[in-house]
Amino acid sequence: MNRRNIVLLTGLGAAALFAGGAYLYTQHAAPTPATPEMAAMPEGLVREHAPIMGPQNAKVTIVEFFDPACEACRGFYPYVKQIMATHPNDVRLMLRYAAFHQGSDQAVGILEAARKQDKFQPVLEALLEKQAEWASHDGPNLDRAWTIAGETGLDLTRARQDAVAPEVATLLAADMADVKTVGITGTPSFFVNGKPLTVFGPEPLRLLVQSEVEAANLP
Length: 219
Description:
Blueprint: H1 3-19, H2 36-39, E1 52-53, E2 60-66, H3 71-86, E3 91-97, H4 104-116, H5 120-129, H6 131-134, E4 135-136, E5 139-140, H7 142-150, H8 156-163, H9 166-182, E6 189-192, E7 195-196, H10 202-216
Parallel strand pairs: 2-3
Antiparallel strand pairs: 1-3, 2-6, 4-5, 6-7
């Protein structure tokens, strides 16, 4: 079953989850130092520059290679939130960019500009929720993406400058290099404490996270 079909099957419950818990995660505008658990993961999975949501001292890290224009990423996002809400003290999410779709590199620029204003998560959720309005298969409508981002309260004048800053291109290039190193060919791709999600689906992800949380909390 392809990832588009997964989205169609899981989408029924996804829409309602977008509406609540917008600030479930802790946001980090600055690079976050790697924990010992993260440092032990395979090469290319974790980087200090990556956005992290969740508690700094979490023992379980979900690394997601994601594309803001990816339908399956949109479909998975509410389930990831739900998993983190179930383990609020134990799990965090690190997002790595895999800009495979046309225009995704510019959407990454919007997200990174939002991160500088501590609005990464509201803008991320707005872009995902209204993805169909800007990430068309016929070609992205980045003007619409900017409008959607602005509806969250983002300072668009400042954000448009930050989105094209050299450090954004450097960050994206580093992530795309890691995409090749790790062997990512589709999004979303998940790793939990370095272990790949080998069976694609929300329930396998939940079970993998749960097993890692239980192992991390053993006496």
